[in-house]
């Protein structure tokens, strides 16, 4: 799997370098980039301001692990002197795997042009879809040494998709103008950065534990990932194989699940693995979900066994969407959150155990009430386990696409730092 992924990225990089060889960055190529991210208080979605256009302005995007490209609202207030559109049958359109061509498009610049490429895009929250126009413009990121942000790096002729205003008005956070996709696809954000700048095919996310602080995404860096007061978390990551679905999603293999160091009885172990067609089972990540969603029988097995470990603690009436709740006064407070039994996901790889402690397993559903932060998904989702944002917060996650591995750490609060402790103020 690893050598196939490396071949994929080599071919993608060669193709993109040929496509865009006429364009160059306006500053020396960096080794890595850094992007601040935050969780929107109203919607709980991940949001980032990415600089783009000419002159440069910050543009707000939802960050989605499963969207295959970057799209933005071009219909309203789009002003840029560097905007352009690849023509139908061009190399750029072929790289985006689109054959749709606007033959008689009528509209105001820069949203609609004749003889330009169409691209199917979707609002991943409302699931409304439409055909947008493939376009190019400047995008810019701060370089980094892993400890501080450095000079801004401009990337001309960055490939993205123009969307109508209506698509951003449906259930996206206020002020957001598009979606920045990080899926395993040729024109996803991190893959184009890799091919354009020659940086490593790696991105590392560290999602903040509160809506008041900024987390971080590193692009192209193997480390360091340094958080105040000078803690490099890249040195303590564990690794597990990373696979990719036919829909360009990221999957890991959970071999077993333990609670309080005891195997969970009654698990349908068949569902722990992706099925032969790649269309069901397994464990994936979803940054659009506020909480982890479990297949119905898996949810029942985990919640029942978790409750059994706390049999002496009285339950209270569940608060939707959760199924198991307690009064918070029964639990001590620790560096890793409420003092409850850990939930361990045993993964492929040496010592690859993802331990979910109270910080990521218990949520205050209302004052004085803590609930197990997992949701019953029934049979509605392809994956058996869909890991949501709450279970990812304050957990460094390194997606090494060249080696097809996921690196992950424990909750940063356990080593007295947080994902919001990257030093964005000092310049390298």
UniProtKB/TrEMBL annotation:
GO biological process per UniProt: proteolysis
Pfam families reported in the protein's UniProt record: TAXi_C, TAXi_N
Residues annotated as signal peptide: 1-25
Entry keyword set: Disulfide bond, Signal
Gene3D superfamilies: Acid Proteases (2.40.70.10)
InterPro entries (UniProt xref): Aspartic_peptidase_A1, PEPTIDASE_A1, Peptidase_aspartic_dom_sf, TAXi_C, TAXi_N
Domain Peptidase A1: 46-409
Sequence similarity: Belongs to the peptidase A1 family.
The protein's name in its UniProt record: Peptidase A1 domain-containing protein
Lineage start: Eukaryota, Viridiplantae, Streptophyta, Embryophyta, Tracheophyta
């Amino acid at each position: 799997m690893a050598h196939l992924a490396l071949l994929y990225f080599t071919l993608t990089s060669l193709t993109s370098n040929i496509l865009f060889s006429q364009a160059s960055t306006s500053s020396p190529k960096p080794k890595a980039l850094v992007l601040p991210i935050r969780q929107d208080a109203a919607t709980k979605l991940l949001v980032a301001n990415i600089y783009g256009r000419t002159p440069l302005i910050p543009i707000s995007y939802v960050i989605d692990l499963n969207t295959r490209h970057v799209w933005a609202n071009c219909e309203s207030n789009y002003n840029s002197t560097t905007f352009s559109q690849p023509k139908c049958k061009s190399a750029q359109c072929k790289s985006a795997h689109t054959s749709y061509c606007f033959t008689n498009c009528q509209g105001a610049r820069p949203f609609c042009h004749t003889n330009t490429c169409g691209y199917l895009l979707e609002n991943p929250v409302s699931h409304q879809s439409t055909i947008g126009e493939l376009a190019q413009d400047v995008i810019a990121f701060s370089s980094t040494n892993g400890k501080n942000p450095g000079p801004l790096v401009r990337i001309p002729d960055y490939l993205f998709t123009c969307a109508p205003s209506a698509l951003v008005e449906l259930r996206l956070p206020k002020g957001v103008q598009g979606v920045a996709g990080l899926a395993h696809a040729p024109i996803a954000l991190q893959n184009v950065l890799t091919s354009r700048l020659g940086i490593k095919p790696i991105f590392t996310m560290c999602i903040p534990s509160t809506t008041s602080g900024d987390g971080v995404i590193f692009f192209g860096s193997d480390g360091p990932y340094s958080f105040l007061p000078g803690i490099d978390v890249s040195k303590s990551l564990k690794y597990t194989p990373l696979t990719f679905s036919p829909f360009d999603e990221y999957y890991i293999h959970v071999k077993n699940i333990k609670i309080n160091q005891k195997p969970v009885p009654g698990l349908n172990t068949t569902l722990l693995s992706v099925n032969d067609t790649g269309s069901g089972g397994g464990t994936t990540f979803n940054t659009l979900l506020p909480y982890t969603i479990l297949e119905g029988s898996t949810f029942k097995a985990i919640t029942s066994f978790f409750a059994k470990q706390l049999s002496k603690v009285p339950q209270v009436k569940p608060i939707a969407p959760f199924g198991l709740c307690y009064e918070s006064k029964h639990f001590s407070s620790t560096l890793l959150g409420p003092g409850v039994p850990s939930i361990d996901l045993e993964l492929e790889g040496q010592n690859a155990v993802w331990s979910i402690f109270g910080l990521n397993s218990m949520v205050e559903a209302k004052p004085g009430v803590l609930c197990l932060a997992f949701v019953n998904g029934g049979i509605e989702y392809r994956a058996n386990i869909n890991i949501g944002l709450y279970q990812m917060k304050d957990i460094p996650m390194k997606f090494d696409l060249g080696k097809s591995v996921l690196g992950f750490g424990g909750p940063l609060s356990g080593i007295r730092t947080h994902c919001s402790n990257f030093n964005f103020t000092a310049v390298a």
